[in-house]
Amino acid sequence: MGLGSGARAPLDPAVRGELRAGCASGSGGRGVGRGQERDCSSPGEGRDRSGPRPQACTAPGRGSAGDFPAWPGRGREAAAAAASRSPATAPAAPGTMSGSGPEEPQPSQASEEDRQQEAEQDWAAAKAFYDNLVTQRPRPPKPQNAITVAVSSRALFNLVEEQRIYEEQGVEKYVEYQQKNENIILKPGPAFYFVKALEHVNARLLELYPDDEERFDIVLMTNVHAQVGVRLINSINHYGLTIERFCMTGGQSPIGYLTAYLTNLYLSADSDKVQEAIEAGIASATMFTAKKDVVYSDTQLRVAFDGDAVIFSDESEQIFKEQGLDRFFEHEQLNENKPLAQGPLKGFLEDLGKLQKKFYAKNERLNCPIRTYLVTARSAASSGARVLKTLRSWGLEIDEALFLAGAPKGPILVKIHPHIFFDDQMFHIEGAQKLGAIAAHVPYGVSQKYQKSS
User: Which residues pair with 400 in a beta bridge?
Assistant: First the structure.
């Protein structure tokens, strides 16, 4: 599914001129608030961190197991691959002389470079303007430096009653109810404690690296109407959350804006929107509320991942589903030294690893506020070596690897108390829910076809 360009729309020249004038004098010029400088009304805004968006994955439940390709590249790898295919670096065609002079840039390439250069100038002007403002609140990081986590309002807050009104009485009654209750604080939703933990990591990073922008940036990405925004803002401020970027699409799907906001991870309570995002090549998961109250760590972000079809591709899962367990074991042992292809959440695990290394560099390994877990149904002796060697080949570390050999994951998750647990199979999600774990379903891979058929 095609999405809008990731290139940031340039500011109006008059606004940019006023910003620069204000920066030069330390006063004057028109101030652009944080919400304005990255307004979601400009879908093309932001740098293209990941290069061209990958081709859409086949939707689960359609076709054969082979319809689920390995998760397409993301981030700098995809951008580098795209650059290697660009006309400027392509080999000379037969019959043409190479080295006879500089190649003329293609029109589209030149215009894209102009847009990127202008966008960088805009950011430099905006940064200079804000550097002259006195505030106790940290400025949101530049999107190309940030790890952007987009969260829907129903994932962040408990909006079960509000959703019931919307479904039974319609949008007008829904908006009316929200406005009448805008001073009543919303209760936490399934992603709330995960977001709180992300912000704790940010606070630690700012202590150690006050001038560094490589940290989490939380975006509220929701299809609610702007009239509902006041209640959301009141609730966010009540809990002391630092969420400055909103995208409220007034009933339209917000998925097209995920690229514009340079999203690394999208969390929602709407499974259809999550499926749409997955098909667009964006790491996404559907949030489910735990059915028991659990105390979560205030000082350490804990993220648990399943392996196949989450961190890794579903290639081995296909063997298991179609040819059985013994053939799966044989396949994994034969391919032990061949790294698995990446899955949807590999990029987010990689992002967490980069932040961990920043703490290690400050001699904070034993006090690192991020801890990662692999919780897989694989057997260690029969199929675990390939998983660990794949992580090693990627240069990634996992803090704890738990091979359960088909045992239920719920009891292990109760011990871990993760802020979020990613899995591709709903029976693991439901088991985690029952025991009080916050689970997030990743609708990717061959298991989705089997879940739908059953």
Answer: 373
In the structure encoding, which two tokens stand for residue 320, read together? 């298991």
Tokens standing for residue 152? 């829907």
* Structure token digits, residue 146: 């940030």
Token pair of 240 as six digits: 């002391």
* 438, 418 contact by CB (below 8 A): yes
Position 369 pLDDT exceeds 90: yes
Q: How do beta strands 284-288 and 439-441 pair?
A: antiparallel
Distance (Å, rounded) from C-alpha 441 to C-alpha 297?
Answer: 22
Report d(CA 395, CA 215) in Å as an integer: 20
Grade residue 128 by pLDDT with cuts at 50, 70 and 90.
Answer: low
Q: Which of 258, 16, 15 is nearest to 120 (CA)?
A: 16
The Cα–Cα gap between 423 and 240 comes to 30
Q: 121 vs 9, 11, 126, CA distance in Å?
A: 12, 10, 9
CA distance 442 to 116: 33
Nearest to 343 by CA among 319, 316, 314: 314
Nearest to 40 by CA among 220, 234, 279: 220
Q: In a 3-state reduction of DSSP, which class is residue 232?
A: helix
Specify whether 306 is catalytic. Answer: yes
Residue 152, helix vs strand vs coil? coil
Amino acid at 201: V
More confident residue, 79 or 162: 162
Angle, helix 13-25 to helix 107-131, in steps of 10 degrees: 40
Q: Could you say which of 48, 122, 270, 306 is catalytic?
A: 306
As beta bridge partners, residue 261 has none
Quote the CA–CA distance of 270 and 152 in Å, as a whole number.
Answer: 9
Give the residue from 394, 366, 365 showing the smallest Cα distance to 374. Answer: 394
The pair of structure tokens assigned to 98 is 């190479």
Q: For residues 256 and 249, give the distance between their C-alpha atoms in angstroms, rounded to a whole number.
A: 10
Q: Is residue 39 classed as helix, strand or coil in its secondary structure?
A: coil
Number of Cβ within 10 Å of residue 227's Cβ equals 15
Q: What span, in angstroms and rounded, lies between the C-alpha atoms of 206 and 215?
A: 9
* Number of Cβ within a 10 Å radius of residue 281: 23
User: The tokens of 266 are what?
Assistant: 């999208």
Which residue from 321, 341, 294, 315 is spatially nearest to 439, judged by alpha carbons?
A: 294
By the 10 Å C-beta count (0-12 exposed, 13-18 middle, 19+ buried), 299 is classed as exposed
Query: pTM score, two decimals?
Result: 0.74
Report how far apart, in Å, the C-alpha atoms of 117 and of each of 113, 120, 121, 129, 137 are.
6, 5, 6, 19, 29
What pLDDT, in 10s, does the model give residues 404-424?
Answer: 998 999 999 999 999 999 999
As given in the structure block, the two tokens for residue 176 are 């009316």
